[in-house]
Amino acid sequence: MYSWSLIFIRKLQEYYKLIQILIKIQFMKKLFLIFSSILAISCSSNKKNFLNYSSIFICEDTLAGEVLQKVINVNNAFMNISYSESGIILVNRTGKGFIKLFDTLNGECISEAGKIGNGPGEYLSPVGFCYNKISKKYYFTDNYKNLVGVAQIKNNEIELVNKINLNYKVSCFCSLSDSLHATLSVFDGHYLSLINNKGVSYHKVPHRLFEIESLDYTSHKYSSIIKNIETSKILIISDINFPIVKAYTYNDNRLTIKWSKEFYKSYYTIKNQRLSIDRNRHILSFHSITTSNKYIYLLTYGITVNGLINRDNVKNGKTIMLTLDLNGNILKTTLLDKCIHNATVSPDDRILYGITSDPDIFLVKFKLNQPPLTR
Hints:
By secondary structure, the chain is of the alpha+beta class. It contains 4 helices and 29 strands.
C-alpha cells in the first residue's frame, strides 16, 4: 500500500513538472508573439526613415559661378533651359522669336525663331522643355493648340521642322529618342505616357506622389519635372513642392517604376482630399533638376513657402545642389553662390549652366569638381 502511494506521489510530481514546463513553453510563445508584434509595429512606424533635413544639406563644397557678360533678353528667369552643342536654348515670348539660342562665352543671343499668333505655323503659348542629344532636336509645347513643336539648329540657326498633335494637355514633356517621347499630364488625373511622333500612346501609367488612397488627383494638380537619362533609358520625375523623386525605366515602349525616394519629411495635412502644405514648417522641394548619363542634379533654395513669398531665395543669393547616382543615392551636396532658378549640365559633367536674376537676368556657369564624393 505504501509503495503504491509513493509511486502515485512521484507520478503527480512528474505531471506537475511537465505542466510547469508546458506553462513555461506557452509563456515563452506568448512572449515571443508579443515581442514580434512590438518589433513589427516599430518597423512599420519607421518604414519611412527620413533623413534629417539639416544633415542632407550640409554642403561639402562651395562653387563660385561665373556670370556671363550679356543681360539676356527675357522677361522672367523661371523657365527651362537646355544645353546643346550650339549653346543654351530657352523659350521666352520676347524679341524677334520665342525660341532663343545663347552662346556659352558671354551669353549673347545668336539666333531666334518662332512667331506668336493664331495663324499657320504660329504658336499661342509656347513652353520650352528639352533638347534631345540623340536626335539633335528641341521640343516645346503649346497647350492652347494641344501640340508639341519641334525645332532643330543648323549652323547656329533655329529652324522649326515639325509638330506632334495631341488630344490632351501636357504639363511636362521629355523627348527620349527621335520617335519616342514621354508626357506627364496633370490635367487628366496625373498620368505618365509614352507616345510616338503622331501623338499615339504606347503605354500610360498613373503617377502618384504618395500612396494615399484618399487623395484626389483629378481635380488637384501637383507640379513635377521630367528629365531623361538616354544611355540607361531612365526617366527621372521630381515634384516641385514635395521632396519626392521617382525613376521609371522605359523598355519595349513600356514604363516600369525603378525606385522612389522621399528625401526628408514633409509637413502637410489632408483637407478635402488634397495635400495642404504647412507654410511655416515645410521645406520646398527641388525646383530644378538636370541629368547626365552618370548623375542626377537636384537644386533647391532650402526655404519654406513663406520664405519663397518673402523672396528669401533671392535675398540669400544661394542655391543648394544635390548630386545623385542613378539609383538615387546622394553622392555630394554643393553650395552654389548664386540664386539659380533653373539649370542644365554639359554631357561630360564639367559645367553646370544656370539662370539667375539680381535683378537683371543672366546666364551663369559653374565648373563642377568631378568626380563627386562618395558618402
